[in-house]
Design brief:
By secondary structure, the protein is of the alpha/beta class. It has helices at about 45-50, 75, 95-105, 110-125, 140-150, 170-185, 195-200, 220-225, 240-250, 275-285, 300-305, and strands spanning about 5-15, 20-30, 35, 60-65, 65-70, 80-85, 155-160, 190, 205-210, 215-220, 230-235, 255-260, 265-270, 290-295.
């Protein structure tokens, strides 16, 4: 069995009375795009900082590439790239100079570094902005520069913390495509985001954190099987009578009904042909129906049931 790229065992981090990480464990295999999700205060950033030895911790062990992580383990650190949520570049340096500086922290050979800088510029699509200073770049281009600075030295493990916050859709797609390309080229990726559709799109496995603990780990399909909801049907219709609502609630596999925003909302746990049964009942009672929606659970539904809050509400 191969050695995990990241192995965290029983990590405990306290801030006085607050337990930020409560015996947290995690393994990430080579070649994964691993999503790390959790509400604000769940311990995601603390996990990353402990993983990188930027924070000390009270108990536990962290291994990266099979080696124990420590503040002075530069042999391991040189193979890690970090792209944090807050853009960290030098305003007094141009796009090219910024990437060259950060790449130079790992690559001393000037000829090799020049090649890597050009590749990073091409990778994020900043060829026309090499001589621009950061203040002249849009938010999306600035994010791309931030990514280029973090990946120019070709790290084996790359951590992306909210890389698409406040960027336009075109830049967001460019960033996501870039992350998938880095993964195809051999990088293992840890990805955090408040945008569930991004996580569903690119992550091979996902961990949901809450209150410093790992609440669930698996593929998106495995996680969706953990919750009660398997289908939600919404129908634009006049509000059913109390008796009719009781009859709807008694249909097979129904566990919750509601009337919200001029729509009947019915949630199911299992079963087939749920929509047909519901529409037949409403038709028999001569309700005029408008638009009908049938939705399978989303990752946000999983997150909501496990943590008690929708991810975007936790921002």
């Amino acid at each position: 069995m191969s050695t995990p790229v990241v192995k965290i065992e029983n990590l405990v981090k306290r801030y006085k009375e607050l337990i930020a990480l409560d015996h947290f464990s995690l393994e990430i295999e080579e070649g994964e795009i691993f999503g790390l999700l959790g509400p604000n205060g769940s311990g995601k950033t603390t996990t990353i900082n402990c993983m990188l030895s930027l924070l000390s911790y009270d108990k536990g062990e962290v291994e990266i590439f099979g080696k124990k992580m420590s503040p002075d383990n530069y042999e391991v650190k040189k193979d890690i790239g970090v792209v944090m949520q807050n853009v960290a570049v030098f305003d007094e340096l141009t796009v090219y100079e910024n990437i060259d500086y950060f790449c130079g922290l790992y690559i001393t050979d000037k000829e090799k570094r020049a090649k890597l800088v050009e590749e990073a510029i091409e990778f994020v699509g900043l060829e026309d902005f090499k001589k621009f200073y950061p203040k002249k770049l849009s938010g999306g281009l600035l994010r791309r520069l931030n990514i280029a600075c973090g990946i120019a030295h070709k790290p084996r493990l790359i951590i992306f913390d909210e890389p698409t916050v406040a960027v336009d859709p075109q830049s967001r797609n460019k960033i996501l495509e870039g992350i998938e390309r880095l993964n195809r080229e051999g990088a293992t990726v840890i990805y955090t985001s408040h945008y569930m559709e991004e996580v569903e799109q690119i992550c091979t496995r996902i961990a949901i954190m809450d209150k410093g603990k790992s609440r669930a780990i698996g593929t998106k399909d495995e996680l969706k099987k953990l919750i009660r909801n398997t289908e939600t049907i919404s129908i634009e219709v006049a509000k059913p009578s109390d008796d009719d609502m009781k009859e709807i609630s008694s249909l097979p596999h129904v566990y919750e009904t509601a009337y919200e925003n001029s729509k009947l909302v019915v949630r199911y746990s299992g079963g087939k042909h749920n929509l047909i049964r519901l529409m037949n009942l409403l038709s028999d009672k001569q309700y005029n129906m408008g638009r009908v929606y049938s939705e399978i659970p989303t990752l946000n539904d999983v997150f909501l049931e496990i943590t008690g809050t929708a991810l975007r509400d936790s921002e």
